[in-house]
Amino acid sequence: MVVASFFFASMAVGIKFASHSFNTFELVFYRGIVSILFMAVVMRARGTRLRTPVPMMHLTRSAIGVVSLGSWFFAIAHLPLATAMTLNYMSGVWVAAFIVGGALLYGEPEKQGPLLFTVLMGFAGVVMTLRPTIDHDQLFAGVVGLLSGMGAALAYMQVTALGRVGEPEERTVFYFSVGTAIVGAAGMLMTDMTPWANVRWQDAAWVIPIGVLASLGQWCMTRAYSQGSTLVVASMQYAGIVFASIFSLTLFGDHVTSMGWLGIATIVASGILATVLRARALPDTRVSELQ
User: Fold this and answer.
1) Which of 223, 222, 208 is closest to 38 using CA atoms?
2) Among 61, 137, 144, 205, which is most buried by a count of CB atoms within 10 Å?
3) Are 258 and 35 in contact (CB under 8 A)?
4) Of the candidates 207, 164, 147, 161, the residue with the CA atom closest to the CA atom of residue 27
């Protein structure tokens, strides 16, 4: 999950540059197309068939993930960026809530407490780093942003379920890429497409890296949620904020406040603590065992 977070943060750098020439739906579409081609090559190289025995599970995962992505983009457009990021990163908290809810049903909530604390600790670090704000006239966008985090959590749980039934990670990423491309294409039909004559080559050069980085990030994330302890993975995903802050500082000259550094330290500490707790043989908290 830490490696996935690095790839996603690197992809965000590419999006920031490419957005000078492309709108959001164009970037979503091109990301999806490149990812489809990249994962098709990977699947061929690994001998993975395109046909799946669980097409409805892939459809559900892709639909939930795409709705979550669309909700996040809506929140970004109508909320301060830090607020939209924070609401989306609440996915880790939602995952923890679903896990603890399952543990309560099975009568073993105390086994989840320590890892639940690391998830909440990491989210506190996100809040300290981003310091989100929201005005009274942004409540609807705030609710949509909140739903984007919940949708992401549900998508992660579906990824875990796909891993449980033995679906290869590369096939899961491939079908999600197909859903992403379809939504991006639909959005382009409803908006004005940027003429390629108006696109700077410096921005166009990021199209392929964005798709490849998205594929690698999705691949690593899918493997993490398929094979790892869900609460540990949920805690580790906050590393994306750390990488994003470092990129902002080194590439874009942004300033990180003292509170921001404290938040980054808290995120790192939560990840280390989650790893230590998992290494002490806490019970596996995968969603698959709670279903």
Assistant:
1) 208
2) 61
3) no
4) 207
Which of 73, 52, 60 lies closest to 141, judged by CA? 73
Largest CA distance in the chain: 62
By residue count, the chain amounts to: 291
CA distance 18 to 217: 18
Separation between Cα atoms, residue 2 and residue 46, nearest integer Å: 24
Q: 77: which 2 tokens?
A: 């457009």
Element holding 161 (H helix, E strand): helix 139-164
Q: Supply the pLDDT for residue 287.
A: 44
DSSP string computed for 66-124? HHHHHHHHHHHHHS-HHHHHHHHTTHHHHHHHHHHHHHHHTT-GGGTHHHHHHHHHHHH
Place of tokens 């996040």: 72
Q: Is this prediction's pTM over 0.90?
A: no
Residue 15: HSE in the Cβ half-sphere, 13 Å Cα cutoff: 21
Q: Tell me which residues of the chain have a pLDDT lower than 70.
A: 77, 80-82, 100-113, 115, 134, 278-291
Residue 244: CA count within 13 A, CB half-sphere: 24
Distance, in Å, from the CA atom of 94 to the CA atom of 25, rounded to the nearest integer, reads 27
DSSP string, 23-41: -HHHHHHHHHHHHHHHHHH
